[in-house]
Amino acid sequence: MEKFRKCLSCDYERGFHVYIKEIEGKRVIGLICPKCGQSYDIGWHTASAEGVKPEKGPAY
What we know:
Structural class: mainly beta
Number of domains: 1
Radius of gyration: 14 Å
Strand order of the largest sheet: 1-2-3
Strand content: 35-45%
Distance between the termini: 28 Å
Number of strands: 3
Number of helices: 0
């Protein structure tokens, strides 16, 4: 796969935000265009991590 950096809907070329959504006990990781909001399911999954709580890190 070539690099996927450009939104297919609006041609924004500066990267994506990441979303994590739980579906059927698995966490699906996908991308969202920060300009138009188009989401992309890129096929990434991770095991459910019960009890894990996100902690804020540095802002960049």
